[in-house]
Amino acid sequence: MKTQSSATDAGPIAVTASRPERRTFGTALAALGVAAFSLTFPATAWGLEGFGPWTLVTVRSALAALVAGGALLALKVRPPERRHLRGLAVVALGVVLGFPTLTTLALRTSTTAHAAVVVGLLPLTTAVCSALRTGHRPSRRFWLAAVAGAVAVLTFTVVQSGGALTAADGYLFAALLVCAAGYTEGGRLAREMPGWQVIGWALVLCLPLTLPAAALALSQEPYRVTAHGIAGLLWVALGSQFLGLVVWYRGMAAIGVPRASQLQLAQPLLTLVWSALLLGEHFTAAAPLTAVAVLVCIAVTQRS
């Protein structure tokens, strides 16, 4: 396959774009991805109203894979080169399978507001994975701001959990690790092929597993067709699992993984808004205050 690049330069993944217009475009794409992801937890909560957790996870991945596979076939995209398969496997395990499964299990007992604030740690874990993977070292100010956001989230989690972490928190922290690995590897691959192909091939690689698993889950778990259940399933499958990741990986390729990952500090606050509007959730002042605290870190990290 001829190498296709969604970015014109071949510099290290974590180096930001040199041209202001490209940086602005990449930031806008990454921000669209964050907006799509901010709806994931409320949509998952809706989906759990009609489907069991394993049904929701497997059907969303299978449905997204069928859409992505159809797009790849329609555009006659050649299969990825062998050297890309290992990276695509990391994306598949982290973003397609790991994160949706772990967060869905967590949301059985955790509120979306609590989960959203915990996932505020994702920028830090992604930046760490990026630094380890690429050898790039962001500035000290970058790390101080990222750690400050992480401390705020950890403090919130411990206080809200009564001084001890719960099983749901364990699922969420594990989800952060696998998702950060998938984001980092996907951002690297998006320098060599269009971002939509990165997530598209990752989804297709999982289809031999997710399709029979979806059939098995549907036969074993009770489900009921509701408007919320269907809407939630469709969003997490098409909005979060495919379209959101398309623009997210493209944005990361343009502005670098650490800079793009810090935009996700805005995601908890957005999810809190959706949780209140769509789910009618009530939360203490600690949730929005923590979300605002980590938002402050965005300005610092974006300038470092």
TrEMBL record:
<keyword id="KW-1133">Transmembrane helix</keyword>
<protein>
    <submittedName>
        <fullName>DMT family transporter</fullName>
    </submittedName>
</protein>
<feature type="transmembrane region" description="Helical">
    <location>
        <begin position="230"/>
        <end position="249"/>
    </location>
</feature>
<dbReference type="InterPro" id="IPR050638">
    <property type="entry name" value="AA-Vitamin_Transporters"/>
</dbReference>
<feature type="transmembrane region" description="Helical">
    <location>
        <begin position="28"/>
        <end position="48"/>
    </location>
</feature>
<dbReference type="Pfam" id="PF00892">
    <property type="entry name" value="EamA"/>
</dbReference>
<feature type="transmembrane region" description="Helical">
    <location>
        <begin position="54"/>
        <end position="75"/>
    </location>
</feature>
<feature type="transmembrane region" description="Helical">
    <location>
        <begin position="87"/>
        <end position="107"/>
    </location>
</feature>
<dbReference type="InterPro" id="IPR037185">
    <property type="entry name" value="EmrE-like"/>
</dbReference>
<feature type="transmembrane region" description="Helical">
    <location>
        <begin position="285"/>
        <end position="301"/>
    </location>
</feature>
<feature type="domain" description="EamA">
    <location>
        <begin position="171"/>
        <end position="300"/>
    </location>
</feature>
<dbReference type="InterPro" id="IPR000620">
    <property type="entry name" value="EamA_dom"/>
</dbReference>
<feature type="transmembrane region" description="Helical">
    <location>
        <begin position="144"/>
        <end position="164"/>
    </location>
</feature>
<keyword id="KW-0812">Transmembrane</keyword>
<feature type="domain" description="EamA">
    <location>
        <begin position="25"/>
        <end position="155"/>
    </location>
</feature>
<keyword id="KW-0472">Membrane</keyword>
<feature type="transmembrane region" description="Helical">
    <location>
        <begin position="198"/>
        <end position="218"/>
    </location>
</feature>
<comment type="similarity">
    <text>Belongs to the EamA transporter family.</text>
</comment>
<feature type="transmembrane region" description="Helical">
    <location>
        <begin position="113"/>
        <end position="132"/>
    </location>
</feature>
